[in-house]
Amino acid sequence: MGEMKWLNEWQPAFLMVGIDFALAISNVLLKKVVDEGIDHLVLIAYRSSISVVFLAPIAYFWERKSRPKLTSGIVCHLFLSAMLGATITQYLVLLGMQNTSVTYTCAFVNVVPVITFLMALPFGLETVDMKSKSGRAKVLGTFVCVGGAMLLSLYKGMQLANFPESTRETASVHTANNPVNWLTPNSKSERWTIGTVALVASMIVWSSWYLLQAKIGKTYPCQYSSTVIMCFFGAIQSTLLSLATNQDYSSWLLKGKVQIIAVLYTGIVGSGLSFVGMSYCVKKRGPLFTAAFGPLIQIIVAIFDFSILHGQLHLGSVLGSILVIAGLYILLWGKNKEAKACVTKQVEATEDHDEEEQAMSRA
What we know:
By secondary structure, this protein is mainly α. 80% of the residues lie in helices and 0% in strands. Helix 2 (40-63) packs antiparallel against helix 9 and helix 6 packs antiparallel against helix 13.
């Protein structure tokens, strides 16, 4: 009994660690193919379509007895979820990744929990009690994390690792070959600025997706089915956008084994199983818990980036990442302390209620 309770308690954490490893590999593959010039929207359309094909049979047989009725309201929420999580966020991340580096891109993922926390406050999904240590820790963690994000965005600093510029030069050549990317900067600083703006926007949109997913998880608690529908809508959205902005149909042809592997892996694992796992964790432990595992992706990706992609490491990225991660875990400490206090209050309330019932029965 104790082992089952321990497993249920830690299952979301173990699942998020596995998802982070999968997403780290996915990010490295994505960086490789966007540097080769693959159309961003074509890539999103392919990976979303593959997710639908892979997950649809699982969703049908696994959830056919427990699946609630699909109302028009739920369909609208899933369509919006696809737009936020599967189309806009992915496009902005790819644009940011192409103009910066994969490690820098993953550093911005660490800001998502803080943005999620700030956006959750007006909707009552998160609260702040400044009289308690947990409330003050949440506010302090937020400020430290935002400060780290600003340092990441505004300060590049000296280069700490001296790797060849081949990957960055390749990216600049292929940036102009991507018809959807009408922003074709010529200098490294311009590319870095455009990439940073795209990443900031993607993190805001991604945080919105977490909040929307928390609502969907309550009204339509079927991770596989909701992910299939979301990816289906995402495939349609990205396909229509690609056809509307790019009449070069040859961009739909995948070139080489790397692009084929990247599309299959990111479709099945990156957009399929990972979305299912994150939706499950949001339902079990909330959006902030799920978003809090971003730093692990950055650590794994940094190892791959320097060893395989020869990415560039700058002082501003290191200092900013340290501040972001420190602020994140101050925030999580406050969140955890608040959760324990809430459980203690519930236990005390239950004990008081039982004592009142016993007193009434004796009377």
